[in-house]
Amino acid sequence: MLKKQYRITDKKVYDRAYRGGKRISGRYLIVFMRENEMPGSRFGFVTSKKTGKAVTRNLVKRRLRALVQQELPQMKGNYDVVIVARYNIKEAEFAALKKDFLIVMRKAGLC
User: Fold this and answer.
1) pLDDT tens digit string along 68-93?
2) How far apart are CA 50 and CA 36, in angstroms?
3) What values do phi and psi take at 61, rounded to 5?
4) What pTM was estimated for this model as a whole?
5) For the chain, which domains are there?
6) Neighbouring-strand partners of residue 23
């Protein structure tokens, strides 16, 4: 589980990232990022009902949190990052999801 200091919990932060942030798209993910005043990056995860039922959505979020936790030591900058799962993410193997995640993070300049 991500520590509290690395999580976005406030709706206003999500809205700011959506409205004023940079958008990077991948095969399974869409990432919105915006600089923050914190000492490190924070992450939020969004899955819609198009992804599947609650069990599937929770599985997707757990996978995304695990990827962030694995790559957190290599991440640079101070950003609020909102990771939105696309509807086709449920079909992805973990290895393919990790590859797409790393590609998107490199495009964003976070890794």
Assistant:
1) 999 999 998 899 999 999 999 999 99
2) 30
3) -65, -40
4) 0.93
5) 4-108 (3.30.230.10)
6) 32
